Structures are given as structure tokens and as C-alpha cells.
Amino acid sequence: MSFYSKIKRQLIGSSLPTSSHSTERLSNAAALAVLSSDALSSVAYATEEILTVLVLTGSSTLGLSLPIALAISLLLAIVTLSYRQTIRAYPTGGGAYTVASENLGLFPGLVAAASLLIDYVLTVTVSVAAGIAALISAFPLLQGFTVELCVISIFLLMLANLRGLRESGNLFMAPTYAFIICIFILLILGIYHQFTTLIPQTYPVIPVKEPLSLFLILRAFAAGCTAMTGVEAISNGVMAFKQPEWKNARMTMLYMSVILGTMFLGITYLVHVYHVVPESNQTVVSLLGRQIFGGGILYYFLQFTTLLILLLAANTSYADFPRLASLLARDSFLPRQLLLLGDRLVYSNGIILLSVLAAILIIIFQGEVSAIIPLYAVGVFTSFTLSQAGMVRHWFKEQTSGWGTSAIINGMGAIATFIVSVVIIVTKFQAGAWVVVLAIPLVVSLFLLIRRHYQYVANRLSIEGIQIRNYPTRLKAETITHPAVILVGQLHKGTVKALDYARSMADEIVAVHVDIGFTDREQLQQQWQQLESDIPLVILDSPYRSIVTPLAEFVSEYETQHPNVFTTVVIPVFITRHWWEDLLHNQTSLFLRRALRNKHSSVVTSVRYYL
To answer: Which sequence ranges are marked TM in the entry (predicted)?
Structure first.
């Protein structure tokens, strides 16, 4: 093993075979921790976001936080019911991209996908920044290391998720449930102290900076809707559950909604009762905890669990961003590398990409939650609206049993989330929401450019129209002087050209293809017999989804069987028009040449096909 391989195994564990995929599923308890941590953690800052807007009008209007929280909880109930309908209709996973694409068309589907991808990146950024803010509230001396702590946290989250779905689920269960228990202790003790001890009876005097208006109330409502982010994650991750997947997903979504609604309303109520006012250097939950718990161990336990749940809230994105990216890659809207499962049966490239993008945003915004929050929630409510509108169309097309009631529920969800989307965009536009509004069409344009490139490559490499080539059966030479192994990924014009080269210089040829689980063997063999029937095709299984390792081992064994002669390894390579287009393709030939060099193969030839 190379030094890199040893370090990789120590950090994320040994490779898992594809056959273990079904065992890497989540129980309902683990799924609540992995897929709901974003939504549940939002109670740590959602109430504060409402108060931060209301405080502009002075202390007399801070009581409006409670009716605003009630309106958001009603919206949560509507969205939960709507997504439970989606899970029932799409038992193998009905994310906004899938639902919108199938029922509203390609462009709405891409808008939903772009919105979600942007929101997932922002979720990691906000969650990590808010978690570090909770830590700094308890330990102000760490203020100067905000960015460094955020980047380290993202790196640790990336490693934890690269270890696999089941391991990350088990790892994150304890902090999630510790946070839930701590919040409920806070609520119970807070209500008890309300009737048994002296608590502040009025808000401190706060100067009025803006007059109270409908627009300001809508701003506060939009800010509080951050409590809704992550609600759709369970619908996107249905296939992460144990069987029966869709039933377990529906039940877990109900549990999540009840817990989230109770905690959010409870914290908002206690903040109102204890007359808590936001402070610049301390979170509202921290202020409430100091009043109810004092400065003892329970307060620090609250801060510690808040830190952990906010950091782990990013895990919702780590579960769903790679999965959505793989769907887009499957449809040729993102680089194909995002479609591949890593060593631990997770989409490793998607996890790494998400971490890099979130770290960049942390550095740009210097880990300031208040600077990132205005960008938040625009994408998620856009995807909510498109998903629910798509479900209404779905029910009208299918008209299965009870479709009318389901259509009404999803219609209510679509209308409610559309109104909230408009409110969020209008009220947060100047504060930063314009960035997301601009970014969504740019990301959609990127999708379309990538798709156009893949279509161009497919057209250029297509063997459609090539005449059937009837080569005579190759007779095995009595003395083999120049054997050749040609590596076949797909049967395209580049492969045909490489095979013709091999015929011109070798007296024995074998073609090798590696099946990592995506190969249609019957179709490949049929095409092979039509075009290249004189050369045997060997298909290798790769239970660990590696292309390079089985090929390198086959070549090494083949060279051993043909001693005292030079075996030529022929690698078909297509050359893109521009260097940046190489980023959209797996660099298998590069890694293979390196592996063959380590195996001491003597002759390796690339046959180039220029697109």
C-alpha cells in the first residue's frame, strides 16, 4: 500500500464491497440524527433571528415574536403533511429535483436542484459558523480564531461522513439526542421557574430605530423561517432508511416535525416570558440558559450540546448534497465523478466538493452568522414551492385512490411556500438574498453547459452508423512475440481506433473491461460481436468499485503468462477541445498508467482520439 492509501485507511476505514450497500442503511433513530439535525438545530438561532428584526422598533414590539413563531409552526405543519404525501408517492426517493423534473419539466427541475445545492452549501456554512458562535459565547477568548475553528470543524465533518452512512449515523446520534433532551429540560425548568421564582417582568428600554410596519413584521417572519430549513431532507433521503423505506421515512418526518415545532415554540415562549433581548456577543439561547440554569454545569452542557448540534446540522447537507449531485451527474448535468460511490459506499467526491465550497464561504464571510443568514432559506423555499407544485400535477395525472385530498394538501403547501419565498426574497433582497437570486440561474446555466459538453462528446464518440466489421477469426500464433492488452471502458470510436492499432502490431490481443456495477453486459457483448468479434473481451468484476486495481492486476498476470516478450498495454484516450473540459471526465488513464508503472509494466501506449 502507498503512504496515501495507508493514511486514507486510517482516517476513513477499509473499503466496503458493493454487496454491503443494503446493510449501510439507517434506523429511524439514526436517520432522525443524520437527516433532521439541520432542522432541529435551527431552534438555536431561529427565535434570535426574529428578535433581531423586531428589536429595531424598540422593546414594545418584541412580544410579536410569539405570534410570528405560531405562524411559522403552522407553515411547518403544512409542509410536513405535504412532504409525507411526496414520500408516499415516491417511495424510492422524491426530492425536489425528481418531482419537479417529472411533473413540471426540465427547467423547473434544474431550478429546484440549483436552489437545493446552494442551500446545502449555505447550511454547512451557517451551521458551522453558528456552532462556533455558541462556543465563543461560552469562551470569549476564542474570538480571534473563528475562521480557523470553522474550517477545522468542516474538515472533521468531512472525515466523519467519508467513513460511511451508518458510521456517521451512529456517531451523530448521541449529540443530537443530548441536545433534544437538554432543550426539553430547559423548557420544563423555564416554565417551572416562571411560576415559582422571580423573573424579569419587563423588557429593558431599547431605543426605536425603525417604525413598526407590515414590511418589518414580514422581515421578522422571513428571518424566523430559517427554522424550516432541512425539513425536506428526509424526503430526499428515503433510500437511506431500512426497509420498508418509505414508511420509516414518513414516520421519522412526523417525529421530526413534532420535536422541532415543540422546541421552537417553547424557546420563543420562554424568551418572551423572561424578556430576553439579543446581544451582540452572546446568543439568545445562551442568555436564556443563563437565566434558567444559572452559570452551572447545566448551562455549559446546553452550550456544548448546542455547539455539537449546530456543527452536526451540517450533516443534513452531507447526507443530501452528494445524493442530489449524483442524480444530476447521472443525467449529465454535473461531472460524472460525482456519480461514483467511494470506498465506504458514500458519494465521496460530493462530500469533498461540499466541504471545499463551504470552507470558501466561511473564509469569504469570516465565519459571521449574521452575514450569511440573509442568503439562507431563499433556495430551500424555492425548492419547496416547485416540489409541492409538481406533486399537485402528479396527483392530477395519476388520480390514484385519495388523490383529491393529496392534491389539496400539496396545493396548500405550494401556495404557502410560494408566498413565503416571495416574502423572503423581497425582505432580504438588499441584505444579501440577491446573491442567491442571481446564483440560481447561473448554476442552472452551468448545468446546461455541462450537459451540452457531454452530448457533444457522446455524438463524437458514438458508434451508431458504423458498418458491421466482419473480421476473420484470429488464429493463435505458434510463437507469440508481441501480445497486447487493450483496456475498454466503453465501446466508442476511440476504442475502435485503439483496437485497429492493436491489430496492426500484435499477434495476440485481449480486450478487458471492468464492471463496477453499471455495465449492461448483454448490450456490450452484443455490440462487441458486431464490431470486434475477432478479439476476445474479458469482463472483470470489481466488488470494491475500483477500475484501476483489477486492470493493473490483470495486466500483471497477463505479462507473467507471456515471459521474455514485450506486452503492449493499449489505453484508448479521447482528447477534449479545451483543457478545462478534462475536469468533467474521470482521469482513469492517468491513474492506470501510474498503477502500471508501479507494477513495472514495460510498454504502455496511449491511442488518442481527438474530439
So the answer is: 62-83, 104-122, 128-159, 171-192, 212-234, 254-277, 297-314, 345-365, 371-391, 403-425, 431-450
Q: Residue 176, Cα to own-chain centre: how many angstroms? A: 19
Distances 469 to 207, 234, 336, 496, 570 between C-alpha atoms, Å: 86, 51, 31, 11, 21
Q: Which three cell numbers stand for residue 309?
A: 448540534
Residue 397 burial (CB < 10 Å; 0-12/13-18/19+)?
Answer: exposed
Overall domain count for the chain? 2
Whether 298 is covered by a domain: the verdict is yes
What is the tens place of the pLDDT at every residue in 465-507?
A: 777 666 666 666 667 888 889 988 888 888 888 888 988 888 8
Is the residue at 446 inside a domain? Answer: no
Cβ distance 341 to 10 under 8 Å? no
CATH number for the domain spanning 603: value is: 3.40.50.620
Is-contact 276 290, C-beta < 8 A? no
Task: Please check whether residue 580 lies inside any domain of the structure.
Answer: yes
> Pairing between strand 537-541 and 603-610?
unpaired
- How many of the other CB atoms lie within 10 Å of CB of 507? 17
Residues 503 and 358 in one domain: no
The residue to which cell 432541512 is assigned: 230
Distance between CA atoms of 506 and 371, rounded to whole angstroms?
Answer: 65
The end-to-end CA distance of the chain, in Å, is 36
Give every CB contact of residue 419 below 8 A, 6+ residues apart in sequence: none
Q: What angle do CA 241, 114, 226 make, to 5 degrees?
A: 70
Q: Is pLDDT above 80 for 7?
A: no
Among the listed residues 343, 483, 374, the one whose alpha carbon sits nearest the alpha carbon of residue 12: 343
Phi, psi of 485, rounded to the nearest 5 degrees: -115, 125
Instruction: Kindly report the number of other CB atoms within 10 A of residue 557's CB atom.
Output: 10
CA R_g for the chain: 28
Number of CB atoms found within 10 A of residue 430's CB: 9
Examine the fold and report which residue of 336, 370, 404 is the final residue of a domain before the chain moves on. Answer: 370
- Tell me, yes or no, whether 305 and 176 share the same domain: yes
441/333 Cα distance (integer angstroms): 14
Model's pTM, two decimal places? 0.82
User: For residues 425 and 375, what is the distance between their CA atoms, to the nearest angstrom?
Assistant: 9
Number of helices and strands in the chain (H, E) = 22, 5
Question: CATH code at 359?
Answer: 1.20.1740.10
Residue 539 pairs in a beta bridge with 513
The domain in which residue 582 lies consists of 483-610
Within a domain: 11: no
Q: Which three-class secondary structure state does DSSP give residue 146?
A: helix
Q: Going edge to edge, which strands form the sheet with 537-541?
A: 537-541, 508-515, 483-487, 568-575, 603-610
Start-end of H helices in 13-105 = 28-41, 46-54, 65-89, 96-104
Least confident of 13-22, 282-291, 367-376, 432-441: 13-22
Can you tell me the distance from the alpha carbon of 311 to that of 370, in angstroms, rounded to the nearest whole number? 17
| DSSP assigned state of 282 | B
Quick one: 141 and 276 in the same domain?
Answer: yes
Closest CA to 20 of 414, 343, 400, 430: 343
pLDDT tens, residue by residue, 540-559: 888 877 888 888 888 888 88
pLDDT, mean of residues 81-110: 87
